[in-house]
Specification:
Blueprint lengths: L2 E5 L16 H14 L4 E6 L19 H11 L6 E3 L11
Helix pairs in contact: 1-2
Length: 97
């Protein structure tokens, strides 16, 4: 059997920060751990965007992720990166992805 995963809207921000009171990094870590623990042969993962975000822009609709956020996201999502296709979302900065 072939397996694929679709994930979206991690909104991982700069280390040590919460996004609107939510620890998006911790939630993403849990998701990665759960995917790995299932031990199924994943063929591909599609990430539909908003991988990273920022807390430095107060107007949410105008926020685009910072380089520091992508480094943080890579440290969390790294174990799945080899099988993941990333598509940018409205809070992503494509040149940094």
């Amino acid at each position: 059997m072939r397996y694929f995963i679709v994930k979206t809207d991690h909104h991982i921000v700069e280390p040590g920060h919460l996004l609107e009171g939510i620890d998006t990094a911790a939630r993403s870590r849990l998701a990665v751990e759960k995917i790995i623990s299932e031990q199924v042969p994943i063929e591909v993962i599609v990430d539909l965007g908003d991988v990273a975000d920022t807390v430095s822009v107060p107007v949410r609709l105008e926020a685009e992720a910072a380089a520091e956020s992508y480094r943080h996201a890579a440290s969390i999502l790294g174990p799945l990166a080899a099988k993941t296709i990333y598509l940018p979302g409205n809070h992503d900065t494509p040149s940094l992805m």
